[in-house]
TrEMBL record:
GO molecular function, one term: hydrolase activity
Highest rank taxon of the organism: Bacteria
Domain (BD-FAE-like) ranges: 103-298
Lineage summary: Bacteria, Bacillati, Actinomycetota, Actinomycetes, Micrococcales
Keyword tRNA processing among UniProt keywords: no
Pfam families for this protein: BD-FAE
InterPro entries in alphabetical order: AB_hydrolase_fold, BD-FAE-like_dom, GDXG_lipolytic_enzyme
Species, as recorded: Agromyces ramosus
Claim: Nucleotidyltransferase is one of the keywords in the record: no
Full protein name: Acetyl esterase/lipase
Length: 337
């Protein structure tokens, strides 16, 4: 069974120590008990509407306007870890067409949205994201992670951080031709929150461990504190899904939920963080003030940040049309190569 890995930062490091101690205790108990107990392995298997994209519209918008070229390769359902409860974590890898002149390529972890409670790495929209990134010359890893209500924060960020480590391991570096010093993250909606957490967690070099060298996120709720949500006029719906994700006590409200700070990328910014691209639409379900405030915080810390606020009310990869794809790709190429 693969060990749990925790993202950087003091809170995550403390949990890493606690999990290590629990794992050691579990091993001792297992040997002494000799009970033959075995944790049954199970895959994350969204089905029906739970697997659908967070883009609710049926229109041909955003990433749906992308047509993948021929020659891309997709390796599906690769296991990148196993959790203590038996959950198998899987991802899909989309690779560019072979090129004899390119020895290694940068990689991008692609993180789906869905309110932290639904969505799937391989639904039609996120498969298109994976293929689009591959068409731009990146090795793209589209990840599944554990979802609410089976888990609460920080399970999802722990999972996607483990995916970064998996990509950086020598086996994957060799198999997919990855440059382990050039790994970035892309996410939308809840996946934008997780991509941003990857970028703002820890303070070490950007080419080691679970750190990433660039982040592009769309429509991410990045300030989950009660004060930020009130300032943005966040809807009861948004407050509700955040409270569920954080595991706040029923009826207590987000203001009584201590996890709000650790789960908010905006509270974790420091000058060591990687460059960010932030995309948002003016009138969507996640208030645009979330992205504007986050960009200002990054800029004040000296972190390079590019912001694209587009008209309309489309959400997440629903705004990822051809012009925005060109901007995001140019950003990723600028910082990942």
């Amino acid at each position: 069974m693969t060990s749990t890995r925790i993202a950087g930062g003091s809170g995550f490091r403390a949990r890493r120590i606690a999990f290590a101690a629990l794992a050691a205790l579990a091993a001792v108990v297992g040997v002494v008990a000799l009970s033959g107990f075995h944790t049954q392995l199970r895959e994350i298997d969204p089905s029906g509407p739970d697997a659908a994209s967070e883009v609710a519209s049926t229109e041909m918008i955003g990433i749906r306007t992308f047509a993948a070229p021929t020659g891309l390769d997709v390796a599906e359902d690769l296991e990148y870890g196993t959790r203590e409860d038996g959950t198998l974590l899987t991802l899909d890898v989309c690779s560019p067409a072979p090129d004899a002149l390119v020895a290694v390529r940068p990689a991008v972890v692609s993180i789906h949205g869905g309110s932290w409670s639904r969505g799937d790495k391989a639904n039609a929209d996120w498969r298109n994201v994976c293929l689009w990134l591959a068409s731009e010359g990146f090795v793209a890893a589209s990840v599944n992670y554990r979802l609410v209500p089976d888990v609460r924060f920080p399970a999802a960020i722990d999972d996607v951080a483990l995916a970064v480590e998996w990509l950086r391991a020598p086996e994957q570096v060799e198999r997919f031709g990855i440059d382990p010093t050039r790994i970035g993250a892309f996410g939308g909606s809840a996946g934008g929150n997780l991509a941003s957490l990857l970028g703002t967690s820890g303070d070490g070099p950007l080419d080691e461990g679970v750190r990433v060298a660039a982040v592009a996120e769309l429509s991410g709720p990045v300030g989950l504190g009660a004060a930020e949500l009130a300032a943005d006029g966040a809807s009861p719906w948004l407050r509700g899904i955040i409270a569920e994700y954080l595991g706040c006590e029923p009826g207590a409200g987000i203001d009584a939920c201590p996890q709000q700070a650790d789960a908010s990328p905006a509270t974790r910014v420091d000058p060591s963080d990687p460059p960010f691209f932030i995309g948002h639409s003016e009138q969507e379900v996640v208030p645009v003030g979330q992205s504007q405030r986050f960009a200002a915080t990054l800029g004040a810390a000296g972190v390079p940040v590019e912001v694209a606020i587009v008209p309309g009310a489309e959400h997440s990869i629903g705004i990822l049309d051809e012009p925005l794809r060109a901007r995001v790709a140019a950003f990723l190429h600028a910082y990942l190569g």
